[in-house]
Design brief:
Largest sheet: 8 strands, mixed
Oligomer: single chain
Length: 617
Amino acid sequence: MMKLPLFLLLISLVTQTSLSEVTISVTPTTLQKSGDIVTISWSNVDSPSKLDWLGLYSPPDSPHDHFIGYKFLSSSPSWKSGSGSISLPITNLRSNYSFRIFHWTESEINPKLHDHDHNPLPGTAHLLAESDVAVFEPGHGPEQIHLAYTDVEDEMRVMFVVGDGEERSVEVGREGRGVEPRECGTCGEDLKKGVRYYYQVGSDSKGWSTTRSFVSRNGDSDETIAFLFGDMGTSTPYATFIRTQDESIATMKWILRDIEAIGDKHAFISHIGDISYARGYSWLWDHFFTQVEPVASKVPYHVCIGNHEYDWPLQPWKPDWAYAVYGTDGGGECGVPYSLKFNMPGNSSESTGTRAPATRNLYYSFDTGAVHFVYISTETNFVSGSSQYNFIKQDLESVNRSKTPFVVVQGHRPMYTSSNENRDAPMRNKMLEHLEPLFTKNNVTLALWGHVHRYERFCPVNNFICGSTWKGFPVHAVIGMAGQDWQPIWEPRADHPNDPIFPQPAMSMYRGGEFGYTKLVATKEKLTLTYVGNHDGQIHDMVEILASGEVLSGDDSFGVDGGARTGVVDSTFSWYVKGASVLVLGVFVGYILGYASFSMKKNGNRPSWTPVKSEET
């Protein structure tokens, strides 16, 4: 038997004693539903480092480097004493949780291991303590409840998540009349028009959700109310190795306020691509649906596909001109979670190019009130002769304009934008070649796009020429400002000094730098689109589109200056000329994303960037 030197034995004993002395506890260890708060407490951490950290693990037996998130112990006010606590809400992932404390110092930072913002990821070499397991007890009903229209006007589809394959039902009823069981495949059939219904989801053996309510679609009403945005994502109460979107919380907060304010009027949500930004990390889909559930369980939540749900090298449609357009933004999801977690009207589908199920929910349409809404996919084949092109053509040509005088088309990547999106230029050219003629010929009223994480509204436009009417000149707006922040603002911020400045062309009627969403209200006489800022919940831009064709742009009461141009620009001067300066500048300066510094994250917080500068302030 080999004898160790005395000093090595002492080091070993000290290390073992130190590890055994550190304690960690979780309260409570049994939870009921997503959003329940756990408190993790620790004590006896010897010589604490400001980089010591708490890791979240689910499943609880995951390897040390497979944490889903972390918080630095220094976020607790008493961390220097070696003791402290952290409280945070956790999401039901249909798997248990454990929590572990690690010691980590600046000298151990590995610059090759970093997150999306190039902040170094914490090291796992020195485990100090591991908690007991925290579990979500069964019997509290399904979660992540969300609604959607079907192809039948008197139906409402109810979707949810459970932890097993057993059948669940939906109980539906009107106030004062109780609820009646319905099988999940026929949820919400034969609904009366414009009536508030109350419903529960679950089973007697597995538990029921709390009672929710929605207002059914009313085909006899001329009024349309919708809340529309793109690129929202989700937020987590901890740091992780993939960028999340804290502003999504404010977007949902203000929309929920607006939904509650309209009372028993019918409304719906439109989220046009880049939904959760999970990119292959399934627990972020769980966070997303938990975050939107307060809204999505009240009103239908409709979506179209974006690059971060789909794009991957194996995707079946990737023409030569799109080589630089379609990359790896989907993180390998290939549209599968998007297709299984949502069920939109219609039956569109395309092969994924893999053994995975076909991608669904690509293009569809429906009427509500005075508006015909069309959803399209910019990630799959849309050129002349494709099944999607044929659908769009036939759909637009068959709209009953006496019933729905306004037509709104929505897709992810924009046909028009003044941002420096050079990579997507070939796609925009194809959209202008193949889709814009369909839009103008069939008098599309409004075209809404995401992808660029800012708000921008254009004049009524056709081939870069502004018109004085939307008939033959659809109004385009980019509304990808609901949460994600990968594009720079039009002007540099103090902590983004190298971001290029993009001149505002004449056809751009308003550009906003704030996060937010849009609200659409329409009758048969007028459609109004407003842009609401997350920083104050107030309207910052508005356009009124009359059935007669007139477009009234802007309002002096918003107090805007350089961000807005009031009135419609009548121009026969192609924007290509004025836009040349933008392209040259973009090529010369390049596209630089600002990264949050490591110091912004050392206390376990999200990157605290300076509020986005708006052109109106």
